[in-house]
Specification:
Elements lengths: L6 E6 L5 H11 L7 E2 L4 E2 L10 E2 L2 H9 L3 E7 L2 E6 L1 H7 L3 E5 L5 H7 L4 E6 L2 H11 L7 H12 L8 E4 L4 H13 L2
Parallel strand pairs: 1-7, 1-8, 2-7, 3-4, 8-9
Antiparallel strand pairs: 3-6, 5-6
Amino acid sequence: MSRSGGLFLVVGNSGSGKDALLTETLRRWPASARTLRTPRRYVTRPAHPSEPFISITTREFADMKHRGEFFMSWHVYGMNYGVPTVLLKWLEQGQHVIVNVSRKIIGQVRRAVPDVKVIFVKMPFEITLQRMKARRRESENEPQFQQRLQRAKNNPLLEEADMVIDNSGPLETAVDQMLGYLLSF
């Protein structure tokens, strides 16, 4: 990862605080370090203040995917997610790239970028449930909420992770862990 930038995938259950962790890590990233970028994801759902993404329709998503505008894409919880190919340009320029993705695409990305690093954000189930309720992205009786909850219950860890960050305490502690890991590259 010395000449080209490093690609870091952040995965974790819904409500584990991945977006807050990424936002604060980018805010605290030292100016003297290699540039760290995060592409904005495209998602086929209405915009919501709990998550930074570009809201698009299913048709727009299909058109973008057909034109090859996504480096990675996946479908989960009834929605499509896409990460734009601009991240390849950033990697070639020697910048590090970090992105919040689904664990479903780790294998696909590892085949394309063998030295990709996977960071798993872990959280006790009880805190995950509290955070999912608090963010109010879905109501508790919606199928997506129940699917996210069941997935969190079934997947408290990710064996293939290169780094595990515990985000059950103060955000600052988790950010310190994230910064320490990323700056080692």
